[in-house]
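Q: Here's a chain of 368 amino acids. Please give me its 3D structure as tokens.
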Amino acid sequence: MSITSYGFLFFAGALLVLYYLIPKRAQWALLLAASYTFYAFSGVRYLGYILATTLCTYGASLQMDGLKKRQELFFRENKEILDREDKKLYKASIKKRQRIWLTLALLFNFGILAVIKYGNFVMSNIGALAGFEGDGFLHLALPLGISFYTFQALSYTVDVYKGKLHAEKNIFRYALFVSFFPQLVAGPIERSTNLLKQIERLEDIKVWDYNRIASGCILMLWGFFQKMVIADRVAILVDTAYSNIMIYNSYELLVAAIGFSIQIYCDFSSYSNIAVGAAKIMGLELMENFNTPYFANSIQDFWRRWHISLSTWFRDYLYIPLGGGKCSKVKKYRNIMVTFLMSGLWHGANWTYVIWGGVAWSLSNYRS
């Protein structure tokens, strides 16, 4: 079910009626049922993937949080007999065991994503290098939103590992965080410190707030306008020009290129605005995903405004762990390059996306 379809409007409308009628303590359960129902429209068989990610990250995070609490209890009960060296050794032991759980969660979830999304791409390239013809052998259908919910779940796991929050004990509330349907298809990629905390406090959120609901409806309408009126109409011009570039002059192709930049922005931004608007109507605040990127005053500023949830995810969970900018100049550029190349590959299993990541890295380091 497309988020810009009439089916989605009917689905969301019926859900909102129920959402405002049922007791507040049952709202999160309704949202969870709706999220899994929405996901099942893309194929019931895909539910196994999101369930596997949910259960794996939930279990690993509980184990890591349990180890942390065990450490605190041990120190509290033995504070009079433990010296600094004993504490240091015990902390190192606990951290090592936490790291094992984190590694297992990362390997399991990135493994699923790698096999499904990139397995055929890798095998095709290996075959090409070996002189075999064909397009690989792993013809697996890509589950809806797998890149988005995988990143979202793993960011939660890493945050628990770092001690930024305690693990969520209620598996159903956590499942809602992973599968929340408005942002499941195209983001924003939410953080547990934002969305999960709101889900935990859902009963405390005021049900009827005219200003909030009106703001959410306006955002949704703007999103539909971006997609159906702007992006889809501009796509006709762009597709016509790009389908046979030989018959058009340079001026016409330039207009098509400008049109494509408008189309791709309105496509991405529309989904985010609809998601943020729908969540706002239900009392949940999702993060801003686009901040007028074409008004940026530099390449670096552009990346801070475009697909904010993804760029900040790569910054916080890849670039900074690699060393960020607090290292030698060579390592800094290496960290930026790895981040952009992985960002390009995230968008699709094709060398064109990898090249795009390389070009984006080059432009991000350009100084006029």
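Q: Can you summarize the key feature?
A: The mean pLDDT is 86.
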